[in-house]
Amino acid sequence: MLSEFDLIKRYFQRARPASDRTVLGIGDDCALLAPSPGRLLAVSSDMLVEDRHFFAGADPFQLGHKSLAVNLSDLAAMGAVPLGFTLALALPAADPAWLDGFSRGLFALADAHGCELVGGDTTKGPLNICITIFGELAPGQALRRDAARIGDDIWISGTLGDARLALAGCLGEIALDADAQALAATRLHAPTPRVALGRLLAEGRLAHAALDISDGLVGDLGHILAASKVGALLDVDALPAGPVLARQAPGLRRRFTAAGGDDYELCFTAPAANREAIMAAGAQCATAVTRVGRIEAGPGLRLADGDGAPLRMQLQGWDHFSDR
Ligand code: ADP
Ligand code: MG
């Protein structure tokens, strides 16, 4: 049986020299990080709980990836550069096969972003994965939710809805063939945090407000509108659907792009003068960027179809947000 300390040593403590950003990593009472002089520390936590955020028996490699991906996505939405993260883990048992898969998934993504695991806590309990991530950015460059301005374009990175479609398939809400289900499921289980795009938007001062879409676009965009005290017009037919959702009926496509969930794409607002620079930034980091609406003075969110006609949609989660 693995002891708590064997477990940490075997799966989470890697033999690497201290980097210029991590003065001291795993092993002491605290990690010591060294943000660049004059930069702000960006901090965020996200917790994944079994049976709430993922199904029991979920693939550990994908869980490792997703646990860190959702945290990196928060840094991306702020325009911050990742520095490091901590991992608080409750495990029902010290299962070597699970720990091996989980840590490999976690470190594969961590290494892709040069983001080190610097500490954490490990305890026995129902499976619960909580990561706190640290990043940095220059003062004045953060992509805050309260920064949207009237007349801004609204943009979306990547595509929306395939994660929700995969969930619908898992729950038996719809029937997808096996290939389509597998393709859509990669979006549900292995989201791609848009760190490079967020950084380019912030450092180039291209965008005003941003957030990452985790609970569905319409609800999440509502947070920007509320914080910025503005309204918006959204062209639902302009929303970029994921490759699997794009082959589904228009009604489903509208519903899952506008109010899916687990997308982990960026929604950001930017002045029209920056359109070309934003397209160039997207091309530079190989991330599609699509213009889907406009920030307006009148409060609330107005949905329109491709012809600009008002669209009434019963969106899951919409009532929950609209009464704020
Ligand atoms: P403490 O005595 O402060 O509770 P622990 O004994 O829990 O410290 O942890 C020992 C070291 O291992 C600490 O540096 C801690 O940050 C690190 N650690 C514990 N659990 C994890 C984990 N799941 N991932 C990474 N580091 C961890
Ligand atoms: Mg501890």
List keywords for this structure.
Phosphoribosyl-aminoimidazole Synthetase, Chain A, domain 2, 12 strands, 2 domains, 60s Ribosomal Protein L30, Chain: A, binds magnesium ion, alpha+beta, 10 helices, 324 residues, 6-stranded mixed β-sheet, binds adenosine-5'-diphosphate
Walk me through the structure.
With 324 residues, this protein is α+β, with helices and mostly antiparallel strands. It has two domains: 4-137, 2-Layer Sandwich (60s Ribosomal Protein L30, Chain: A); 145-304, PurM-like C-terminal domain (Phosphoribosyl-aminoimidazole Synthetase, Chain A, domain 2). It is built from ten helices and twelve strands. The protein has helices at 4-12, 60-78, 96-112, 162-170, 178-189, 195-203, 217-228, 250-258, 275-284, 318-322, and strands spanning 22-24, 32-33, 40-49, 81-91, 116-124, 128-137, 153-157, 210-213, 231-235, 265-270, 289-296, 300-304. A six-stranded mixed sheet has the order 8-10-7-11-9-12. Strands 3-6-4-5 form a four-stranded mixed sheet. Strands 1-2 form a two-stranded antiparallel ribbon. The longest helix has 19 residues, at 60-78. The chain is globular and about 65 Å long. The structure holds adenosine-5'-diphosphate and magnesium ion. Adenosine-5'-diphosphate (ADP) binds next to helix 1, strand 4 and strand 5.
